[in-house]
């Protein structure tokens, strides 16, 4: 009887683990799909060239990272970028997509790590602030040294042509780092602030659904 009971407990434990793993994978797939849909709803900003468009695709990523864990957030970000690559292709041979993955992770991962240490509204806000700042910094350097050169190469342009596009929107943009500081940095900063604000407003209710408490 003891051996039978122990075997039953082991099987039940394995079943719970398998169920939890399956549930997490379903949640990751669902949130990734929502992120892809949100990428379709993008809009330009008045201070940046038209190829910089804001969307809220990071919202399901950060919600997943908070509710399931930092690793899940990275997976959702990766699936989002990969699906977008497969559906829409790439003009930069995947370089731009990889850089965007790093920028997304620079926001999601630190925010989720801070929140996971103490799950409270205060730590969530602190993590989102930290993530927004880090995303802005990482976004500036990746745009300067990876994304903008990759786009210039893809379209057979000089970097100066991209700077001219920035100047057309903001005459103060006269150099690469002027472009970075006056267009790229505000873009990422605004995106982080908006995504963070919506996350704080809706996370509690969404997390209850993800955790199966409703």
Protein model, in words:
The protein is an all-alpha fold and 214 residues long. Helix content is 79%, strand content 2%. The chain has a two-stranded antiparallel sheet with strand order 1-2. Helix 1 (2-39) runs antiparallel to helix 2 and helix 2 (58-67) packs antiparallel against helix 3. The mean pLDDT is 85.
Quick recap:
The protein has 214 residues and is mainly alpha-helical. Helices cover 79% and strands 2% of the residues.
The helix fraction, in percent, is over 70%
Please write the string of helix (H) and strand (E) elements: HEEHHHHHH
Q: Bin the strand percentage.
A: under 5%
- The value of Rg in angstroms is 20 Å
Summarize the topology.
Layout: H1 2-39, E1 43-44, E2 53-54, H2 58-67, H3 70-88, H4 95-117, H5 121-154, H6 159-169, H7 176-210
Helix pairs in contact: 1-2, 1-3, 2-3, 2-4, 2-7, 3-4, 4-5, 5-7, 6-7
